[in-house]
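hey so u asked for the seq, here:
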Amino acid sequence: MKKRIFAAMLTAAVVFAAAGCGNSQTEPVTESAAAATTQEASPEVAAELEWQNDPTAYLSGITAADYVELPADYASLTVEVEPAAEVSDEEVENKIYEVRESKRELQEVDGRTTVEDGDIVNIDYVGRIDGEEFAGGSDQGYDLTIGSGSFIDGFESGLIGHEVGETVTLELTFPENYSDTTKAGVAAEFDVTINSIQEYNIPELTHEFVADLGIMDEFGNAIASVDEFRTYVRNYLIESNESQYTQKLEEAIKNALAEKSTFKQEVPSAMVERVTESMVQELTTYAMQYGLDLKTLMQLAYGSTEEGYLDDIRAMASESVKRVIILKAIGDKEGLVMTDDQFQAELETAVNSASGYTSVSDVPREDVEAYREVLDRQAIMDFLKSKTKVVAPASDEGATGDTAAAAETEAAQ
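ran it, structure tokens below
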């Protein structure tokens, strides 16, 4: 299957609030909680693809000025955006520790054989109900953190104080509200053999550790020393903060333009359907990463109703379309939109430098149009950022006119 070479599409960026999900108690079984809760995504919408043959599905098929009246001051906006955060030495060291921790390995504890709370113990266990082993109730070589609450009450605490090599018999009862109703309130017996007590070993920050990471700088040179790694991490954090600042600035500009612009007629329905379909695909993929389906994600993240979640996505798509039409109108007026010849040259360069396609003619029209829109939008946003004045938001205590004026800066582009 050919790979798409244009990842950037017309859809608006969507920010999700993290929603924590989990069971308070987990049966000591070999199935992971993730496997138990993950739902396979089902087709949420029978996509209507009539828009694919409608020229108004793409910005190249409309005259943006027919749809929107731009504000007179679109090239002299003032927006409030927090400056990019400074990077402290502490943040650099914290990020380095995160990298070291990600490379941690389990090793046996020396000089101690008695299980304590917080230990990671490697165990074999067999579970029985009425003397019979039950499915999912046994495992070998399982790494269990004592006190994690991963297993039913009494299992982990029942191992505290026992020795490596010892087999402990635990007589427990599944809780009344246990997720598997066939076991809720049922008595069970577990024979648990403690194989070892382990702890995580976090590698030291050494030249060898850095070299093993295999990191390259922007010039293709290997990062091989601790000092080089610290510089690399600092630059990474600086770039990350600047990227967040740029995203906030662009969003503030688009919000200001949306508030000041007036639409003369409804945006093209074909374009809304196109963006809706893309959003459904992206949101469904995101939902699957959290073991959810699209409907549940929309309910948790956006407060959608069971009946109205698709309408909410379509409304989001409509707002996205309005914003790109506004930008296209500005691009047309300022002569920032590429000519056909200019775009063709850009497209050929992209195809020649990407895998999956042998020629421009192989690229689906939807990808071609989306790529063109992305390139035009970048040029338009660069223009707007160069013209926009950025003011740091006033503090909670309030800022005087002089202080606000002093905080005003030209967007650095």
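Residues 105-201 form a domain with the Chitinase A; domain 3 fold (CATH 3.10.50.40). The first strand starts at residue 68 and ends at 69.
lmk if thats what u needed
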